[in-house]
Amino acid sequence: MLLGIHVLACNEEDVLGRCLQSVQGLADEIIVTDTGSVDRTAAIAEAYGARVIQQTWEDDFAAARNAGLDAARTIWVLVLDADEYLGAIVQRTDLRELLRSAHTDAFRVTIENRYGGETGETVSHEAVRLFRVDRGIRYQGVIHEQLVHPGSGPIAVDGQLCKLTLEHDGYMPEVIARKGKAERNLRLIEKALLMEPDDPFHLYNKGVTLCQLHKPKDACTAFSLAYLFARAEAPYRPVLIRDWAKALLALDDFGGAAALLHREVDRYADYPDMHLLYGDSLMRQRRVMEARSAYETALEAGAAGSAAARYVVEAGAGTYRARCGLAAAEAALGRGDRAQRLYAAAAREAPRYGPALAGWAEQQQAAGERDEAIRAALASSVGLAAPGDVALQARVLGGIGAYAAALPLWRAAQPLAPADARAYAACLVGAGHAGEARAVLLGALGVRAADEGKPEHGGRVSLVTEAVEQRQSLLSSREPYWPELCMDTALCCWCEGEALDEELRSWLHGSADSGMQQLEAALLAMDGFLAGTVSGLAIRADIASLLLERALRLGMLPLAGKLKESGTELREGYAEQLYLNGYTHAAAGLLLSAMESRQLRATELFCLGEILYGKQLYGEALSLFEQALQHGAPPERARFGAAACSLSLAREALLPWATAASAQSQQFGGGWPHTDLEQIGTALTRVQAAGWRTRFSAAQRRRAHVQIG
Q: 0.85 cut: is pTM over it?
């Protein structure tokens, strides 16, 4: 027999059928090695005509896989995991002809690994999965096992690339959590490290597993040791550097990530992911000019098209992701037209990639495009056929403050996931419909508002019971969104001038979860404060601050004015919070008024200086930046602000000379003011590229002239 399909499985009844269905008709035999399933895995395998090999699990993946290979009756085998499946229809005749005419013992296949549910959340790599089992090729290693020829030691089997593609979704975060894969893998890796303590491949895989367990700091320790011991030619070394850099970025260690990548980008010049991450780390350090160059190099590497054969590659790293990074750099340099073109190009490459659509919409709005025109442009790119596509466009429009344009899309995209329900509610609030937003949020929590379809008898008891049951369901599923939903619901109640819903109170009450208890206490205390029955001293300051910040982000300005009165720190920092949320005019009024009665804090001086700089009052702004430096403002931003003011003042002083020089070119010895103006312009561009100015979203920019009532 020519070809066998081999699958290793344990309690995989939810995915095994999909796997085996994808290979139907291709093979002469199917072998499923079962390592102790207690569900319907074996029965499903037999239903697809598979021969089931029962193998005792010995904490050794190689031993389990080799048990299946030892039972093979075919010349070739194609190895899959139960959570993998063939990604495209494969013709039986084409595959068998490939194997019959092969002059090699093995073929690599492309594996697409999905790590999230959004467009582009995929990494791909190539691995040997199709090989001649009759040549004695077997697996080696208790975990992350490798294929080796008999007697060849640690040298892994390699082969030509064939056209087969496997899709894999077994490392989606929810799957990892539900099946405990990361905990199992860490235990096996620790076991392997007991035998080989300095093995860099084990150390690298330990770092990956710790990342999956949301422990980036511990992961960086493992990655650093792997980096120390790994040979320069080790095939996993590039992805080790990539993953270490991602972990450093997760820890906000932008300098560490940039330093690591700076050492390695030349060695891996054709690896777009490395250049993309280098650009990201530089952007986070406000080194925009350097980041721009890194993104351009990532695009060049992507265009070369050779990365897939050597590296683990993230979808879009050498195309639309890098193009979005380059667009962000151009926007930071004040080149809005270029940024818009780049975002549009990225959206054409990946029509459903959220960051490309969001950047494109924001640049269109900054250029003065009408909301309905932006909506039409998004629809032409994405389409309106699927509810997910409609919700994506609604999120983008809501993100730029185009609430009226977004609402019809949200209403057409039902039903919504909780995260989308929160975004829909934010649009409703922005459009002045806080009451409707409250109902949407309660629905996301699984609770009907009290005035929606109450039964005649026992209605209130029914709603309360429903709230408690839904709360237990959400908490047991470890969903991360319930605190935000509860806070937004409370804010909508207060925005309408009402007390907390009894349904929300019931949802919050009686939980054993400490986070739930703290949130309940804070919301009830704030509810009492707004009603005039509780002192602000009873409210936890951190949660009160979160409520105020969220109210301002949602545009609930009258409510925010009340919330700030719950604490002295909130009241004193209110003007700064207004500014950071885009209320520039309102913040300026409060800060100027405060200057008459007290010394402004360093951060307030900086905010006011930035406001005056935006109004081209450079002398006044310079004075404020200098004062901010004296009072302890973040030195880098304040110094850049002062430098921008000084350069702008110099430019203003030179402009009359340059105008006169243009009229009488000989008067100033050949036009030296123009040369100085060019140099000042270049310096200003570099200063602005440092990212010292507060970045406002498109939605926040719309609030610049809102007055405090």
A: yes
